Input
Amino acid sequence: MITMIAAAAENNALGKDNDLVWYLPDDFKRFKTLTTGHHIIMGRKTWESFPKPLPNRTHIVITRNTNYHPEGVIVVHTMEDALTYAKDDPNTYIIGGGEIYKIGLAYATHIELTRVHGTFDADAFFPNIDLSVWELITSTFHDKDDRHKYAFTYETWKKK
Output
């Protein structure tokens, strides 16, 4: 399986200035639970937004920069190369950002989307989900509460 995992608003906003525009602790826990022990594929900007590598995951960074060699990651220049490195992983995750999601849509078999209920000013967006290609498998609503400023829904999509 190749799964794109993201949190996107109703207007498909992902973030602004290389950061998220909301804080949802339960979504972070879900992300950690799903991706731990797996390969995670991301773009350079997403990698650089992390204060340190995420524990117990193999980081694969896609960049056009052939001189980019940060420590602790596998650097590749195409999605095909990233997926080659992850070929033995039963579930590889594509974790962003916006450009990598657009590329990844053609390769993904599943999408784990946290749909944040609201619209936000952003400079990175999740691609539209084509309902002729994707089928919604599960949907679980999470209301706003004292730890979550926004309501959201966990959605699992599968390619038809």
